[in-house]
């Protein structure tokens, strides 16, 4: 069982990082679509580790009902549309919210699937309180990851973005625009 727990932790951790990377996509609403795709992939992988039933449509419904913070995420995403300062503020907020929400979803679904649950018997009302608790912990986790990456591993971020593009979570256009901004940042 310890091996399964270790695999689940790695799945959650890597998807938090991918979500934070996707949260940096400078195109309003494209970031939310990419983060949602990443979260659904994480839930599917966690279900797979437990041999639990999974359905993508049910997953989408559960993610949107649990992550009621979508309105806040939408606000952070739309702030990116304001030239200059809006982009910086929106991206910073979106990175943190994306990481924290992904962490919380991962932990909630881990708890559910580890108790032999499936995507079809998930009780959203019962899990909302747990989600909110994990969201607070997720903010700490995302903050630490963001702080740890302050030296900003731009090549590593570009590699993660390419994986997102290759998986279909973001489009070629979103990838190219974000890559261009990161390379400009690296050039100083």
Q: Name the helicity range.
A: over 70%
Strand fraction equals: under 5%
Which spans have pLDDT < 50 for at least 5 consecutive residues? 69-90
Shape: globular
The secondary structure category is mainly alpha
Instruction: Report, as a whole number of angstroms, the end-to-end distance.
Output: 48 Å
Count of strand segments = 0
What summary fits the major beta sheet?
none
- The overall number of domains is 1
Helix-strand string: HHHHHHHH
- What's the tally of helices? 8
Rounded to the nearest angstrom, the radius of gyration is 16 Å
Mean of residue pLDDT values: 78
Could you walk me through the main structural features you see in this protein, from its secondary elements to its overall organization?
There is one protein chain. The longest helix has 30 residues, at 85-114. This protein has 188 residues and is mostly helical. The chain has one domain. The chain contains eight helices and no strands.
List keywords for this structure.
0% strand, globular, 188 residues
In short:
The protein has 188 residues and is mainly α.
Draw up the topology in text.
Blueprint: H1 2-23, H2 30-50, H3 56-66, H4 70-79, H5 85-114, H6 124-148, H7 154-167, H8 172-187
Helix pairs in contact: 1-2, 1-5, 2-3, 2-5, 4-5, 5-6, 7-8
